[in-house]
Amino acid sequence: MARHSDLYRLIQPVPDLRSEDGRGPVLVHGLEGFSDAGQAIEGVTDHLRDSQDAQLIVEFDVDQLIDYRSRRPHLKYSFDHFAGYDEPAIQIHAVKDTKGASYLLLSGLEPDLRWDGFTESVVDLAGAFGVRMSIGLGSIPLGVPHTRPTNASAHASDVDLIRGFTAWPGEFSVPGNVGSLLELRMSEHGIPSAGFTVHVPQYLSQTAYPAAVLNLVDSISKVSELDLPTGELEKAAEDFTAQVNAQISHNPEILTAVEQMEKQYDEFMEARMGSDSLNPGGKPLPSGDEIGAEFERFLAQQSGDGTTDEE
């Protein structure tokens, strides 16, 4: 763990993370900053830490990794004095699932600086802890209605890891982000890596969207065989959908817009009835050009200059 050890500190004692059969833990990584539509990444990491037995084992030096002026932390002011500081953090917790199996959870803000040093540190730590697989989390807003099932796109270093999931078809270039870079670096160092990018209705992307959190937690469970709690998330997703439906039912303009989106979405899906190699159920998929164009439009907005790399 010597390489770039100035970027983090280990918090002792570090628990034994291997299972009874000697398998190493899964690493789940969800870093906020590049794209967190519906606050899905934050929602997943908070849910996993708060609902299970979690122990902090690695703390990264955010002073070396975060540009405070680009994402200013909040200070709490109380009447006549400053009373608190929302200190940024990047941490790894050792977490036990509901059956007692250990896994690692990397969470916090996406680093602004020293990407190579940070990803190399995580890869080194993964090797030292015997990580057998890494799973990354993403969330983007798309033109999908909240009244249809929440979907996610899968990607992996080995197609067998995401067999049964739907992948982005085609090839295109996107702005870099630490989560995707970490997924790449893991696979380059022989650690199987996968990731899931959940689709959030664009008109709900600025608020917490429980259905997206539930989708990501379910995806983690399926690919990792971890037993993760979802009862509270299922209830939250049902309640949220009911609240949204109640609100739009009193607004004919919004209701009409959602109904039109449903129609376009259904027609779009029905027009793409082909079966993807990762999707043996034969569910409809959009074309690579259509998804790529939609994806690049969103990522161009995230880059801050309104253009993609190709443009």
From TrEMBL:
InterPro entries: Proteasome_assmbl_chaperone_2 (IPR019151), PSMG2_sf (IPR038389), Rv2714-like (IPR008492). Keywords: Proteasome. The keyword Thylakoid does not apply. Signal peptide: none annotated. GO terms for cellular component: proteasome complex. The keyword Calcium does not apply. This is Proteasome assembly chaperone family protein. It comes from Dietzia aerolata.
